[in-house]
């Protein structure tokens, strides 16, 4: 290992180096150790990987990691073709540095020579990898030569989607839609806002586009904290599809609503802004702190409870929203790490918890009260099949179909049972950067009186 002192000296002479070292280390944390992208760049993670980095370097490291994860399959296939003998075992972690270099060369607006030079310097910093600095140089230079062909031949489904997910999506949605989902996942996500009130006025003030669903889609590059209305708590960031489930509950002022799995509070804020008396429940005290901070900025109120929903005891609610934990495959555009950190076996464990949460929602909603169940997953086990199973096992529950007028007239995001099923290629736009929706499932139910 390089001493901290030699790293510090190198970094002083080569200002771009710390961001590349951090990016390479974080690729390892995510791909090999299964940490999430959000966790790696959260405030708590800073001392471990990002300590001492200037905000500009943290932003660059994040761009490298995000671009690299979004196109990981393409990068790995290209590197494998150039490394016919693979990487030497003692220097296997050079892969992270090569991935970071390749992400810059293929997908970021970074000068090629900087990407190569800094990857070579990073390799020289460690005794185990130093003998292979020449190999790093040769591989990345060959990558530059082959760039056009690599990009032209890169297929979203074959290369940038893990095979098990690609196979699932083909089976569920057919070849064409599976391809469209994979292609949409490679695009940068849009920046959508939910406003407390008067979306037309705020769309105008923020120079954004008012979507048929009522969300505002922005094109600005101004940091969100500097935009009008942020400090005043007039709006919050929330994907346009994620904003739909809470609206389907049709809350009226004073209604007692249980938000099951509430943190960090995007949907709870919608319910509270609509005048509901919200009880926000989540088992993560840490994430509920974020909800509390968000609510403070938005000047909204909710009663907050740290609890496991499965064993929750509470007086009955007028309505319940269940935003259950899930595989989150509908949000790969925003969280490209999900494609590589989730495993096929996760679905069975998650769908068992989802079923128990649904049963709890039925138990804790008053007779005649409504439940909206949602997940940001495009896997049917966590959506359509979950509701079909609940309706089979509990005759006291019925579906209340969602009408197109409740989702901005977007018939294509409703299925034949009147459930919401949005997918990343939905909501196309004249400009690619304004297109797309997170993949969400939502069903509205009523506990029979
Ligand atoms: C999809 S997120 C919720 C997002 C939130 N509703 C929003 O709109 O901002 C799922 C949440 O479920 C919580 N969670 C997972 N398992 C839980 C359980 N057994 N009981 C309570 N909360 C749970 C997680 O801590 C996480 O905050």
From TrEMBL:
Family: Belongs to the class I-like SAM-binding methyltransferase superfamily. RsmB/NOP family.
Superkingdom of the organism of origin: Bacteria
Keyword Methyltransferase (UniProt): yes
Keyword RNA-binding: yes
Active site, renumbered: 376 (nucleophile)
Entry keywords, A to Z: Methyltransferase, RNA-binding, S-adenosyl-L-methionine, Transferase
Record InterPro entries: MeTrfase_RsmB-F_NOP2_cat (IPR049560), MeTrfase_RsmB-F_NOP2_dom (IPR001678), NusB-like_sf (IPR035926), NusB_RsmB_TIM44 (IPR006027), RCMT (IPR023267), SAM-dependent_MTases_sf (IPR029063)
Classification of source organism: Bacteria, Pseudomonadati, Pseudomonadota, Alphaproteobacteria, Hyphomicrobiales
SAM-dependent MTase RsmB/NOP-type domain ranges (all copies): 153-448
Positions of S-adenosyl-L-methionine binding: 261-267, 282, 323
Natural source organism: Methylocapsa palsarum
A GO term, aspect molecular function: RNA methyltransferase activity
The protein's name in its UniProt record: 16S rRNA (Cytosine967-C5)-methyltransferase
GO biological process, one term: RNA methylation
Entry-linked Gene3D superfamilies: NusB-like, Vaccinia Virus protein VP39
